[in-house]
Amino acid sequence: MVFTKNYRYGGWENCVKLENNEIELVATTDIGPRIIRFGFKGGQNLFKEFSDQAGTTGGDEWKLYGGHRLWHAPEEVPRTYFPDNDPVGFKYSRDTVKLIQDTETTTGIQKEIEITLDQKENNVKVLHRLINKNLWEIELTPWALSVMANSGRAIIPQEPYQV
């Protein structure tokens, strides 16, 4: 397994890249937390990218960007649409990188995405965290959203239907 920091991707100068012999993923640290690329090495990105927003940072306007991101549910404007246009921190240890967003100024929530890439298998574990930094309780749940590339196919196992 190989970890690369300060990796350039899609116009962003400061991405992190995890790869093994077959698959790779790229997460932005100029914005986020967000995984912007996932796929076989040298192959198609399974995530959609919006080229008109590639490499952009900053501002108060919410942008789609593409890729995989973490929201909080239930969906509620403006809370759910807090822009992820600012840099995020990251920590790397062995086969895991943790992306850490600053606490959102309007919600008091801090988002983390922890990504573990298996060193040999085509297996990625993505752990999502919402951390309440307020002085009061709030009720919400993590909502992980992946914007998939056009013409793709997803195979999603489901539990048997029960009445």
What does this protein structure show overall?
With 163 residues, this protein is mostly beta strands. Helices cover 0% and strands 44% of the residues. The chain contains no helices and 10 strands. Strand 2 (12-19) and strand 3 (23-28) form a beta hairpin.
Keywords, please?
4-stranded antiparallel β-sheet; 163 residues; 6-stranded antiparallel β-sheet; mainly beta; 0% helix
Task: Report the major sheet.
Answer: 6 strands, antiparallel
Note poorly predicted spans: none
| Tally of individual domains | 1
Shape, principal axes of CA atoms: globular
Helix content: under 10%
Distance between the termini: 44 Å
Describe the protein's topology:
Elements: E1 2-9, E2 12-19, E3 23-28, E4 34-40, E5 67-73, E6 89-93, E7 96-100, E8 109-117, E9 124-132, E10 141-147
Q: Short summary of the structure?
A:
By secondary structure, the protein is mainly beta. The protein contains no helices and ten strands. The protein is 0% helix and 44% strand.
